[in-house]
Amino acid sequence: MRIKVVRIPPNVRCFNIKKIPYLLGPRGCIKMNYDARTVSVSNSVFFQPKLTIDQAIAFNQAALGVGLLFRVEINLKGLGYFVHEEGKNFIFRLGYSNHVIIPIPDIIFTELKKKRIRFTSAHFNALTNFVTNIRGYRYPSIYKTKGIFYKEEKVILKEGKKS
By its UniProt entry, which InterPro entries does this protein fall under (predicted)? Predict the structure, then answer.
């Protein structure tokens, strides 16, 4: 199935440079990674050739991102789990013998408060991949309430072994 028309928010503009669509909004500009001619009419964008489902979803996410921004918040829970920012790097202390150093991409903005980190970006996929990568260093424990949690995430604790 292919899609010809995609709706965009009123504060977002779509234009072409050498057959490559760009989205421009109050929160940034995103270049799409496919060749297509576009024609914008009010809040609709017409594509030639038609978009695949995946391309249409990526286009909609990009349009929302440059219009509103995406946010993800994570919390560090556990004794001895800390994070601080040095330049464009996060330095995590997560109970390992060495610190975990993670570079922050230029397209992701961060706010750091003690054990809480808020990420914002116009790029949905880059944001979720980055946060998932960080979370992979200490998944939430199901036996103790420790690890890296999303803001509203709840973990049901399992009962330990009875002896």
Answer: Ribosomal_uL6-like_a/b-dom_sf, Ribosomal_uL6_bac-type
Residue 45 phi/psi, 5-degree rounding, is -125, 125
Which residue ranges form the domains of the chain, and what is each CATH number? Answer: 2-68 (3.90.930.12), 71-150 (3.90.930.12)
Find all residues with CB under 8 Å of 16, minimum gap 6, and list them: 22, 37, 38
Query: What's the confidence (pLDDT) of residue 33?
Result: 85
pTM recorded for the entire structure: 0.83
For residues 37 and 163, what is the distance between their CA atoms, to the nearest angstrom? 69
Element (H, E) at 52: strand 44-52
Q: How far apart are the C-alpha atoms of 105 and 136, rounded to whole Å?
A: 17
Average pLDDT on 81-90 reads 93
Angle at 97 between CA 144 and CA 81, to 5 degrees: 40
